[in-house]
C-alpha cells in the first residue's frame, strides 16, 4: 500500500470509528483486520434436504444464526416472486444464484429475469459436465461461451460468474492447469470467479497464491473445509484450510461475498450454525 493510499484508508477508518463509538468501532476494526466482509452467507445447497418442505422455517433459522445473505441453487418449486418475499421477510438477501450451464444456454433471458426478480447480482455457473472438460480446447471454448453470455448479462445489470471444483486444475500432462487457460481467456469485465477454497486446496493449489496471480478476480468465495487423507468435508474451521491466512488476502482477491457451504453434511443446520460461529470468531 503506498503512502497516499495508507493515509486515505487510515482517515476512513478514523472517521468510521468516530461515527460508531468505541465498542462498535473495535468490532469494525477487528472485522476489517481479519479481512472478513461485514455480511456472511450460506449456499442453500447445503440445506437442500430441508428446503422443499419448509423454506420459510429454514430461512428463519439461518437468519437467527446470524446469516444475512444466501446463495440459491434452484428455488425448490417456488416462484422467484415467492422466494424474494420469503427472503425479505427474514431480512436476507441473495446476491448470487447458481444456475446450470445448460439452463443458461437454453434460456439466458429467463435466468436473468429471475435474477432481477429475486435480487441476484451474480448468476454463477456451478459445474461443468465431463464431456466439456476433456481437453484444454474445451476450457477455451467454455470461456468464449461465458464471455458471450456475460456480455448479455451485463446489459441486464447482472454479472456472470464461474464456480470451480478440482477438475479445472487438470494439467493434461503439462505443468499448467487448465484453470489458468480458462481464467486468462475469460474477460474480467464480463465474467467473475467464485473460488471454492476447498476444491482448490484438494487440487493442490493455495487459494492465496491464486488471489495473488489473478488479483481482484474473486469477489465470491465458497468457504468450505475438509480434513484427513481423503479431505472429508467438515464444519468450517475443523479441517486443513488456513482461513486466517486466506481471509487476510481478501483485499487482494477482491472479496465481496463469503459463502459458507458443505456438499452433504450429516446435519445441515448444525453445520450452518457451527461454521458461522467459527468464521465470526476470526473477527477477534
Strand-residue proportion: 15-25%
Number of helices: 13
Distance between the termini: 23 Å
Low-confidence stretches: 1-20, 25-31
Q: How many beta-strand elements?
A: 10
Largest sheet descriptor: 8 strands, parallel, barrel
One letter per element, helices H and strands E, the order comes to HHEHEHEHHEHEHEHHEEEHHEH
Structural class: alpha/beta
Rounded mean pLDDT score: 91
Specify Rg, calculated over alpha carbons: 19 Å
Give the overall shape, derived from the CA principal axes: globular
Q: What is the helical fraction, as a range of percent?
A: 40-55%
Sheet with most strands: strand arrangement = 1-2-3-4-5-6-7-10
Give structural notes:
With 284 residues, this protein is an alpha/beta fold. The chain contains 13 helices and ten strands. It has helices at residues 3-20, 22-34, 51-65, 80-89, 101-106, 108-118, 136-155, 178-185, 197-202, 207-213, 243-248, 250-253, 268-281, and strands at 40-43, 69-72, 93-98, 122-125, 159-163, 191-196, 220-223, 225-227, 232-234, 257-260. The strands form two sheets. The chain has an eight-stranded parallel barrel, surrounded by four helices. Strands 8-9 form a two-stranded antiparallel sheet. β8 and β9 form a beta hairpin. α3 (51-65) runs parallel beside α13 (268-281), α4 (80-89) packs parallel to α6 and α7 runs parallel beside α8. Residues 1-20 and 25-31 have low confidence and may be disordered.
Amino acid at each position: 500500500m503506498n503512502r497516499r493510499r495508507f493515509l486515505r484508508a487510515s482517515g476512513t477508518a478514523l472517521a468510521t470509528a468516530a461515527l460508531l463509538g468505541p465498542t462498535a468501532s473495535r468490532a469494525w476494526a477487528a472485522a476489517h483486520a481479519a479481512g472478513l466482509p461485514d455480511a456472511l452467507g450460506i449456499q442453500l445447497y447445503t440445506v437442500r434436504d430441508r428446503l422443499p418442505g419448509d423454506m420459510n422455517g429454514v430461512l428463519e433459522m439461518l437468519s437467527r444464526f446470524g446469516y444475512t445473505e444466501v446463495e440459491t441453487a434452484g428455488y425448490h418449486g417456488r416462484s422467484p416472486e415467492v422466494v424474494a418475499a420469503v427472503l425479505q421477510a427474514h431480512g436476507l438477501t441473495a446476491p448470487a444464484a447458481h444456475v446450470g450451464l445448460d439452463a443458461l444456454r437454453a434460456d439466458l433471458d429467463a435466468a436473468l429475469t429471475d435474477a432481477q426478480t429475486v435480487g441476484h447480482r451474480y448468476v454463477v455457473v456451478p459445474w461443468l459436465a465431463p464431456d466439456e472438460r476433456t481437453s484444454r480446447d474445451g476450457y477455451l471454448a467454455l470461456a468464449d461461451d461465458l464471455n458471450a453470455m456475460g456480455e448479455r448479462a451485463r446489459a441486464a445489470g447482472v454479472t456472470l460468474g464461474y464456480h470451480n471444483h478440482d477438475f479445472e486444475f487438470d494439467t493434461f500432462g503439462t505443468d499448467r492447469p487448465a484453470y489458468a487457460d480458462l481464467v486468462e481467456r475469460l474477460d474480467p469485465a464480463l465474467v467473475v470467479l467464485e473460488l471454492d477454497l476447498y476444491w482448490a486446496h484438494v487440487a493442490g493449489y493455495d487459494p492465496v497464491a491464486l488471489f495473488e496471480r489473478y488479483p481482484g478476480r474473486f469477489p465470491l468465495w465458497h468457504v468450505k473445509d475438509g480434513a484427513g487423507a481423503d479431505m472429508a468435508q467438515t464444519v468450517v474451521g475443523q479441517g486443513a484450510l488456513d482461513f486466517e491466512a486466506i481471509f487476510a488476502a481478501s483485499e487482494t482477491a477482491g472479496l465481496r461475498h463469503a459463502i459458507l457451504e458443505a456438499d452433504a453434511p450429516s446435519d445441515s443446520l448444525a453445520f450452518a450454525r457451527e461454521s458461522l460461529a467459527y468464521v465470526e470468531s476470526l473477527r477477534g
